[in-house]
Write a structure and sequence with these properties.
alpha+beta; Fructose-1,6-Bisphosphatase, Chain A, domain 1; D-Maltodextrin-Binding Protein, domain 2; eight-stranded mixed β-sheet; five-stranded mixed β-sheet; 8 helices; 30% helix; globular; binds 2,5-anhydro-1,6-di-O-phosphono-D-glucitol; binds manganese (II) ion
């Protein structure tokens, strides 16, 4: 038990609820935490919670839904509907956003979320998570789809929950990134990781290398240099991880640094990336930047993208600042036609390119 330690509610009262809007935002984050606790309890039951496997339903992404995807989506929607703090919600699992209608009360925010991230990991009992992004709603009327299409820089709060050995919630309202651990017996989130900070340098990268043949040259160059280790251009050994739950990858990077890449590839030309801007890339970009890291497509800061669709996909490169900068620089050189093959000795740590 954590008697005397700071709960999420206390943290929000002290740090967020100073203004009227702040008080509403603090209350909304308490609602998010309530949904997260419900999903933690559901996911923690594993096979005891009901059938696992896949449903017959396919979401708007063309992905087969799992029971926990749907249950988690319902947990968020019910919480937001009852909470009276949002005017509308958009989710990975909903074709279109939907406005909150009477008898439910509408509030000043829009909530966009990935209710269950990493769902391919559910059946194998590997960590999954939830990701959320909070925007301001239009002041009058029911929100329309266009109202959700705001650049990531306009987020008023964002965060993720990780359902791992411990349930963790990490949030930002634009003043640093802060981590809370669920005290399961008591039911409180306790502030365990204030002012999280991503190390600027790292020797750990995360990418799904089964897609290697579809990558663009700058990404191939970067990864080949990492794999070459001490004997290659980087002159040091790198380590690799791939969990296939973005939340778990981002949390590892928050704790010890690293670079996460789901880059643009040519696997399916209709999709410029795997991950979704509004409920994966933008909220993670906000959390990472507030912890001193960077988040880019390789060619643009993620949070500067002007969205044109709720479910649009973007390339994502995020994590330790100096490694993201390096890969962005490789994209610049490639686009300018001045890049060199990764084997070149000119590109070692003491060579032409220095970050
Ligand atoms: P979701 O389960 O919400 O659809 O998201 C899964 C995402 C992300 O969490 C992860 O990084 C990526 O998909 C894994 O993709 P691959 O299976 O292609 O590695
Ligand atoms: Mn996801
Ligand atoms: Mn999902």
């Amino acid at each position: 038990m954590h008697l005397g330690r700071k709960t999420l509610s206390k943290f929000l009262i002290e740090n967020v609820s100073g203004t009227q809007d702040g008080a509403s935002l603090a209350a909304l984050l308490v609602d998010v935490a309530a949904a997260v606790k419900a999903i933690a309890a559901l996911s923690g039951k594993g096979a005891l919670g009901g059938p696992m496997g896949s449903l017959d339903t396919i979401n708007v992404q063309g992905e087969t839904q799992k029971p926990l995807d749907v249950l988690s989506n319902n947990a968020f929607i019910n919480t937001f509907q009852q909470g009276g703090l949002v005017a509308g919600v958009a989710s990975e699992e909903l074709d279109d956003p939907f406005p909150i209608k009477p008898p439910h009360k509408r509030g000043p925010f829009l909530a966009i979320f990935d209710p269950l991230d990493g769902s391919s990991n559910i059946d194998s009992n590997v960590s999954v998570g939830s990701i959320f992004s909070i925007l301001l709603a239009p002041e009058k009327g029911l929100p329309e789809t266009a109202d959700y299409l705001q650049a990531g820089t306009r987020q008023v709060a964002a965060g993720y929950a990780l359902y791992g050995p411990a349930t963790i919630m990490v949030i930002t309202v634009g003043h640093g990134t802060h981590g809370f651990t669920l005290d399961r017996e008591v039911g409180n989130f306790i502030l365990t990781n204030p002012n999280m900070s991503i190390p600027e340098d790292t020797s750990e990268f995360a990418i799904n290398t089964s897609n290697e043949r579809f990558w663009e040259d700058p990404v191939t160059r970067y990864v080949e240099e990492c794999k070459a280790g001490k004997t290659g251009a980087r002159e040091r050994d790198f380590n690799m991880r791939w969990i296939a739950s973005m939340v778990a990858e981002v949390h590892r990077i928050m704790m010890r640094g690293g670079i996460f890449m789901y880059p643009r590839d040519t696997k399916d030309m209709s999709k410029p990336g795997r991950l979704r801007l509004m409920y994966e890339a933008n909220p993670m970009g906000f959390v990472v930047e507030q912890a001193g890291g960077k988040a880019s497509t390789g060619r643009q800061r993620i949070m500067d993208i002007e969205p044109d669709q709720i479910h649009q996909r973007v390339p994502v490169i995020l994590g330790s600042k100096n490694e993201v900068d390096r890969l962005v620089h490789y994209h610049e050189e490639y686009d300018a036609g001045t890049d060199k093959p990764y084997e070149s000795p000119l590109f070692n740590e003491r060579g032409l390119y220095r970050s």
